Amino acid sequence: MRVLEIAGICVVALLALLFAIFFRRRLLMTGGGTIRLQVHINTIVPGRGWSPGLGQFVGDELRFHRMFSLAIRPKRILDRRALTVEDKRLPAGPERLTIPGHWVVLRCRMADSVLEIAMADTTVTGFLSWLEAGPPRDPGSLRGRPVFGPRPIEG
């Protein structure tokens, strides 16, 4: 009888965990401005290390939340003022097993780091529009140093 009680408690705990993950995902998606994407988290093994999740547009940021995580905070935050897209390609090699066929991989640069994100081909147009709709950037912003200093306030 004791074994059945422990098994029952484990089943209820597992169902509660699955419900929490589903509820978190639903809560993120109801806010609007959400897309499905994958971020290349680990680059040790070529073609592997992709993490599926949701991207949420909040002002000048794209916040990446992992799909199977209970974390409240996003895993990555991409700032549109420092983000540039360098290359667009189709998934190749082992990536084709984890990334859907109608998705594309974007190689992005943020300051001094390189990041790869994958999203549906139809989503790329909206993502690039969001990226270009930001305030104008000065050429030095990619290096973390503004070309021109702040203007004094005249009054």
Short recap of the structure:
Keywords: Membrane, Transmembrane, Transmembrane helix. With 155 residues, the chain is an alpha+beta fold. The chain contains 3 helices and 7 strands.
What would your notes on this structure say?
There is one protein chain. The protein is α+β, with helices and mostly antiparallel strands and 155 residues long. The protein folds into two domains: 1-30; 33-133, Pleckstrin-homology domain (PH domain)/Phosphotyrosine-binding domain (PTB) (PH-domain like, Roll). The protein has three helices and seven strands, in the order H-E-E-E-E-E-H-E-E-H. The chain has a seven-stranded antiparallel beta sheet.
CATH superfamily of the largest domain: Pleckstrin-homology domain (PH domain)/Phosphotyrosine-binding domain (PTB)
The CATH architecture of the largest domain is: Roll
For the biggest β-sheet, the strand order reads 4-3-2-1-7-6-5
- Oligomer kind: single chain
* Number of helices, where a helix is a run of at least 4 consecutive DSSP H or I residues: 3
Summed up, the domain count is 2
List the main descriptive attributes of the protein structure presented here.
PH-domain like, single chain, 155 residues, alpha+beta, 3 helices, 2 domains, 7 strands, globular, seven-stranded antiparallel beta sheet
Secondary-structure map:
Layout: H1 2-30, E1 34-40, E2 50-58, E3 61-66, E4 76-79, E5 83-89, H2 95-98, E6 103-110, E7 113-120, H3 121-132
Antiparallel strand pairs: 1-2, 1-7, 2-3, 3-4, 5-6, 6-7
